[in-house]
Amino acid sequence: MPYIPLVDHLPGITGLLEYRKDSAEPIRDLTQFLLRGPNTLTEGERELIATVVSSGNKCTFCTTAHTAAADMLLGEQDTSAKVKDNISTAPVSNKMRALLTIASMTRESGKSVTPEAIEIAKVAGATDVEIHDTVLIAALFCLYNRYVDGLATALPEKDSYYNMLAKRLVDTGYTRSPQGYDHLKKGNSISS
Amino acid sequence: MNGIHKMFLVVRFRRYSRFCFIYCSIKRKIIMAHINVPEGVPGIRSLVMFRPETGKPLYELAQILLRGGDSPLTEAEREIIAAHVSNRNNCMFCRDSHAAAARCLLGNEGTLVDDVIGDPGTADLSPKMHALLNIAGKVQIMGTEVKQPDIDAARAAGANDRDIHDTVLIAATFSMFNRYVDGLASLTPTDPKAYEEMGKRMAEKGYSIPAPVTSNTN
Asked: B35 Cβ partners below 8 Å, 6+ apart?
């Protein structure tokens, strides 16, 4: 049971973003720009950063949702599974390995990010903007994970909900649907 | 001076130069941010000037959470939560700037925020604020650390849904800001005067994004 009254048909973060809409708006805008805006990192790569951080924070809702989004964008399920298991042996480029390492350090604490880790990323070809965005995506998911679990939000009744959510995140992104989410009321498993 | 002596001096000089070079490189790395942000601009301001596209929603979020009119928590109470979480995350820039803002907002009771940073348990706060700071501290560790008894204690002390929601979201938001500021090694001033000025600005004008140009003004 969530610690505050949230609507039944919107599990995880989705109910919180409808609970207080004025604070949800800049959070949505920030996420939309970081994960879907113009960037030299692909949308799939940025979803992998979100996935690794959520997995490290053991946030079930965020990990499952962003794994599903990453898988959909990458067209396979192998990479997300392996980066969650072990970044150093996962099948990603050296630049992504260095950026995912920085994301994991940021997840622990801002102070855990070492000059050496930054140097390795730069040598592997990461730009300042890519390093900036990696740290901010990691920090943003430390917000999300704490928001979602700190208020004990519900998990979806059916796992198929995550595929529907991932499709929405891939097709329309993170901005609020203009018509709201009342159309999801009849059942979590019904596609939007 | 014979040849051997000369050689000895040359080797020592080379070693000394190398030591100076390495020392300066390390010092530069300690002082400089990890990325090329405007020099001399402290903390998050340097980061949002580097990337105004993300800076805009970040400042909007701070303004809504810490100054937005419809929260049941006072502006000072919200700044105390921000300073408390930043202190627990060992983020000196965020702790000292939000503590300075809280001091301005608290007026005569300004030292209350210093008591919270020192030991929240002994600070002269309302039972509701004690319970909410306990929740904020747990959120700082991890969301799953917040348990039903923590929520029950806050409700027993008079906290409503929005008090609890806003506390968790402010604590989660500062878990982001602290990581952003320190993860990119942005400049942390050590002069208390710098924070006094920041706190005054934050208390009087709130949170508005600085112009995205390189300048040395705060």
From this structure: A128, A131, A132, B50, B184
SS3 (DSSP) at A159: coil
Torsion angle in degrees (nearest 10) through CA of B205, B209, B210, B213:
-170
Domain boundaries, chain B: 1-31, 39-205
Q: What confidence tens digit (pLDDT) does each residue in A128-137 have? A: 999 999 999 9
**Cβ-based neighbour number of residue A175 at 10 Å:** 12
Choose from B34, B58, B91 for mutation: most chain A CBs within 10 A. B34
Q: Please check whether residue A183 is in contact with residue A11, taking contact to mean a CB–CB distance below 8 angstroms.
A: no
The answer to whether the CB of B95 falls within 8 A of the CB of B102 is no
Q: The whole model's pTM is what? A: 0.90
Please tell me the distance from the alpha carbon of residue B49 to that of residue B86, in angstroms, as a whole number: 22
B22: Cβ contacts below 8 Å, ≥ 6 apart: none
- Classified as helix, coil or strand, B148 is helix
Q: Is B155 on the interface with A (CB under 8 A)?
A: no
Give the residue from chain B lying closest to A149, CA to CA.
Answer: B143
Alpha helices in chain B (DSSP H): 3-31, 43-50, 52-67, 75-88, 92-106, 112-118, 127-141, 148-156, 161-183, 192-205
Only one residue has tokens 């027993």, namely B156
User: What residues have CB less than 8 Å from A178, skipping those under 6 apart?
Assistant: none
pLDDT tens per residue, range B113-159: 999 999 999 999 999 999 999 999 999 999 999 999 999 999 999 99
Q: For chain B, give percent helix, strand, coil, nearest 5.
A: 75, 0, 25
Between CA A122 and CA A120 the distance in angstroms is: 5
> Class of the A12-173 domain?
mainly alpha
B contacts of A106 (beta carbons < 8 Å): 179, 183
| CA-closest candidate to residue A103, choices A40, A36, A49, A46 | A49
> Distance (Å, rounded) from C-alpha B196 to C-alpha B198?
5
Please count the other Cβ atoms lying within 10 Å of the Cβ belonging to residue A135: 29
Q: The domain B39-205 is classified under which CATH number: 3.40.50.2300, 3.30.420.10, 3.10.20.70, 1.20.1290.10?
A: 1.20.1290.10
**With an 8 Å Cβ cutoff, are A23 and B47 in contact?**
no
